[in-house]
Amino acid sequence: MDATAQEDGVRPDYTMDQPIERYSAGDHAVWRKLFDRQARMLRGRACEAFLAGLSGLNLVSDGIPEFARLSDLLDAATGWRIVTVPGLVPDDVFFRHLSRRRFPVTWWIRKPEQMDYLQEPDAFHDIYGHVPMLMNPVFADYMQAYGEGGLKALRLGALDKLARLYWYTVEFGLIRAGEGLRIYGSGIVSSRAESAYALESPAPNRLEFDLLRIMRTGYRIDTFQKTYFVIDDFAELFEATRPDFTPYYAALAKLPPIPSGEIIAGDRVIHRGTREGWDANPDS
Ligand code: PHE
Ligand code: FE
Fold first, then answer.
1. Which pTM was predicted?
2. 123: CA distance to ligand 2 center in Å?
3. Using a 6 Å cutoff on CB, does residue 270 contact ligand 1?
4. In this structure, which residues have their CB less than 5 angstroms from ion ligand 2?
5. Residue from 127, 15, 13 nearest 71 by CA
6. Which pLDDT belongs to residue 231?
7. Which residues lie across from 206 on neighbouring strands?
8. For 143-153, what is each residue's pLDDT tens digit?
9. Which residues partner with 160 through β-bridges?
């Protein structure tokens, strides 16, 4: 168990009650500011499902919301619930929650000096970024299936492969809409700068979704992504990931990883990135 798990009031499954009384006026102000910024950024950039989820949750800028209230609305829509956690939880704990349609949300919010980038999830990323998408029935089922797949990947020693799929879909995925590309990835919708960068910058690659290719692709957690993958709709994602991954993992074990910015033969390229502003830090 890590240190945070021993914090007072944290249960063995790493859940706790949301400590509303611990939020300061400054914390609520950070939420309001992040929320208002994204409301402006995401018009015409976030996908329909995200925007519909946001309004279905009655998420407004007021201040950090009560998770229990959101959880009831979410439950009524797709049978998912929010559970409050102290921060990142161990992989097996995370997957077990997802497989039971429980989404772990970090209770605390970033400091004012971290408005633009944060490497670990906080309440704004988890609530604003993830929960609206869980209001969508197809995406909700995908996330549960992912949780079950995570437990299997752990048993098979293939978590590095499956984690890349989460990264390039749930966190940084793009989707095609009639009018052009739109964002559904939580890591993008909760970031002001990346919501413009992911769609409009000439620097990153934008490639068609390709399950096995994604599971070979390294990623960066410390900067904007070098490559984004685009799906046509959530049904495509759900169908592509429906098969048993056991043989996929066996095949992938023999193939080298692909660096995050690389384009390889067979890629269906929507936009070839100019690589402008990229640095040489290694992928994970
Ligand atoms: N079908 C995958 C497996 O057998 C599970 C999975 C579902 C993984 C959805 C990711 C997303 O491992
Ligand atoms: Fe996230």
1. 0.95
2. 10
3. no
4. 121, 186
5. 127
6. 98
7. 228, 271
8. 999 999 999 99
9. none
